[in-house]
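WARN retry 2 of 3 for item q-0093 after timeout on previous attempt; input resubmitted unchanged.
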Amino acid sequence: MAHTAPMSSPKVGAGSIATPWQKLQGSESWEGLLPSSEHPLDADLRASLIAYGELAEAAYDGLNADESSLDAGSPLYGHAGLLVASGVSHPEHYNVTKFLYATCDLREWPWSASESTRSVGKALFVQPAKVTRAGPPCWETNWIGYVAVATEKGVEALGRRDIVVAWRGTVQASEKWQDAAFPPASVAQRLDLSADDKFADANVYSGFLSVYTTKNPRQNYRKSQIDIVLDTSARDEALKEVRNLVEAYKSEEMSITVTGHSLGASLATLNAFDIVAHGINVPPASSKLIPTPLCPVTAILFASPRVGDDNFRRVFASFPHLRALHVKNENDAVTSLPPVYYVDAATATLLIDTNRSPYLRHGTPLLTPIWYHNLQCYLHGLAGDQGAGRHFKLVVDRDVALVNKSTDRLKDEYPVPANWWVTTNSTYKGKGVARFKLDNFREE
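OK item q-0093 returned
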């Protein structure tokens, strides 16, 4: 059986990009770039979205999710090693400058704070383990993402100094329970916007907002949690780091891109909105005589649940320098949740359908939901989906083995084991994504 050779990764460089970076970041709401009856997805936007998807994937790969470990909830790598270890196509384009930690406080929800009900909570959330991690099991802090900034090589390739905030999706048990905390919460109260009446009626999903704004407890500290700042939230640290980077590069042309998958896409929506609502994208003026241009803020969202109500969507759209592009898979049920009250606040939507890929097995949204929600399946779809009525074609060279990184969706004729991503099975080749090592396989 012939083996498809590993493909090189998307190449995004100033010398090859035909589309101005401002348009790729949504300056014209992606008009003319999204697929239509006349043309497929713009090639440069396709490559750009895959690149940001890889940065979001790194926020998954960098987490120690082993609950039997004393370092559970900590990053597996340092700043310098994260993007290389994850297999980001161009790790030389960004420097990671800050790790982010999110706290889930389940002591008050959905039960009361009585000792008896807290015991029930502990029984639900704690699995038998050989060791006990630091901190109470229903009030824990986990690594959830990072902030990065374009290097000089990145500036040359991207055409500007790009500041990235990347958020991962749900992994830990406590995060799954926060995903189910659906009552609305006030944006004005939780994001310090009460002074402006235009935010008064805007509400968002309380579970997502809690993950974003809850401060970490001092007793959850672990030495392996690099960069953690006690008594702060993921929001506090993300805003502080972005503000510092905007100040550091105020004389340059900049963009701020916030990206994430699933829960991470919800956090990216809140974070992007928060940055603009508080003017953090406005560089400090270097002179009273020279006006300071606003830095555009773009949210690149993958498989996001619905975050806010109609009022939140209205205030989100009221900021001219804030845009969001939501990539949805046709059969991904998560993007339609919750089914009532909440809506999608994104500026534009890109709909793909991974069922069109000849490489993938077809499942059903009910029996195999992860096949349609998995981020690597999304990126495979982006690499080849040409839109409704067109045949799937991998126009971006991307290794199909990545589909099985944490799923089992590749067809049997592709000799790649399911869920192969472990550190001993992954390797970085220097010019592309992490490859599965078929040690006993020889190409014919």
